[in-house]
Amino acid sequence: MRKPCLKTDSHIPTMRRSMLLLVGWLLACMGVAEGSAKEAMVKFPGGKCVMYRLYLTDKRGTDYTLEHPSEFLSEKALRRRQRQGITPDSTDLPVSNAYLRQIEAAGLEVVSRSRWNNTVVAKARSQKAFRAVASMPFVRKSVKVFASPDSINKAIRSHYRTDFNSWDTLSANEYGTTEQQIKMLNGHRLHAMGYRGRGMTIAVLDGGFMNADVIPALKTISMMGNRDFVRPTSADVFKEMDHGTKVLSAMAANVPNLYVGTATQATYWLLRCEDNSSENLVEEDYWAAAAEFADSAGVDIINSSLGFHAFDDKDADHSYADLDGERTLISHTASMLADKGIILVNSAGNEGMGTWKKINFPADARDIITVGAISPNGKNAAFSAIGPTADRRIKPDVMALGSPTAVITGRGTISRDMGTSFATPLVTGLVACLWQALPQKTAREIIQAVIQSGDKQAAPDDIYGHGVPDFVKAYQLLKGK
């Protein structure tokens, strides 16, 4: 049975599987790690198919104009942009409907599209169906991004606990099991000032949110909704893997004296864009579609604990030369987010002990916050991916506790899990608190203040970046401007 390459921290790349299986076994014996939801093998839904990404030449024939942006952007999105002096441009216009109709008339199914990249992902039973479309004058390039496997892993919804274990209770401590990971970032002081993310909207881009709709500790979360951008779509994102549940809990859960997240008063969108059953280039298109949806819905901050570089089709693998924040579709999209007034906080990746070693895509993007993982002693976790980017920019940007992080699993229990995926939401939630405190600041100003507050700001490097951020210092830096 095939095991997918590293996309999230619950999955182990082949090159270092034996080493991390040993680590996982030791952690399980100590009671600090808990497995994700069970999986079963099923036939690929819908039978054989292939997908191509079509790069379009222009947007002639679109039904929209820049004079009426409210037709394709929500009022909340427009207000976020106006607050930062940003006006919609041609990249915001939806893909041409005239071109979409011609693609569909050729017998293809459009499964995803990107306004910012002016691309379309189309699906057909075989590659032959794409020959006519590839020669159409408005298609400047086509790239194969998916070929269906015979069978896939399918998550099975786990049973969940309705309460925590008695030994998790720390009655004298407001934060309970999350005290260390929040205090390390000086987040408790920001909280004491009254900032817990109220008025901020966070989109969580992940692979599934097992039981996040029923676990009692997560029932108090302010939820805007959920969407699935993977094709074929899941019947229920709350029956998929629990990686997103763990990520969400680190920000949003609020059970005083037991488990308190970094942004308990923020509002959340749960967006599934990771296909846990395989590793294909099309997942970058799903990610871009989710990010653009987040923009149009008025999201302020995106938490992405996802990363890519190697795929099932080895011809699609990215190289280190691609790691410049622009060459790949996912990183190019991520580099545009600050231009739309959105802050992206992305995990660095867990390739530090593998042959790749470097950060994943889109952690190389410009104008984002890339987060690596450290241990309680302040040392970098061996698995935490390093920089620099191909164009010699320092990455990661900052570090947070990820070896391990206290999270709530899909089974409703508190667990200590390891990965840059879980360090990332600690930073994301406090970014929301910081922006709540200083709503007049722009996305770029917030990003820079967080990075400049790091404890290695005087001498940043490609292992720790600018170090562990101090969110009270970031607040003071911004207040002084």
Note down, in words, how this protein is organized.
- This protein has 481 residues and is an alpha/beta fold.
- It folds into two domains: 14-41 and 160-479, Peptidase S8/S53 domain (Rossmann fold); 50-147, Alpha-Beta Plaits, CATH 3.30.70.
- 24% of the residues lie in helices and 18% in strands.
- It has twelve helices and 17 strands.
- It has helices spanning 17-30, 75-83, 97-105, 131-134, 179-183, 187-192, 243-252, 282-296, 329-336, 420-437, 443-452, 471-479; strands spanning 39-43, 50-56, 109-114, 119-124, 139-147, 151-155, 201-206, 222-228, 254-255, 259-260, 267-272, 301-304, 343-347, 369-374, 398-401, 405-408, 414-417.
- The strands form five sheets. A seven-stranded parallel β-sheet has the order 8-11-7-12-13-14-15, with helices on both faces. Strands 3-4-2-5 form a four-stranded antiparallel β-sheet. A two-stranded antiparallel sheet has the order 1-6.
- Helix 8 packs parallel to helix 9 and helix 11 (443-452) crosses helix 12.
- The protein is globular.
- The termini are far apart.
- Mean pLDDT is 90; it is low at 1-36.
Question: What is the CA-atom radius of gyration, in angstroms?
Answer: 21 Å
Residue-averaged pLDDT:
90
Query: What is the architecture of the largest domain at the second tier of CATH?
Result: 3-Layer(aba) Sandwich
Q: What is the CATH superfamily of the largest domain? A: Peptidase S8/S53 domain
Summarize the helix and strand pattern as letters: HEEHHEEHEEHHEEHEEEHEHEEEEEHHH
The total count of helices amounts to: 12
Domain count: the total is 2
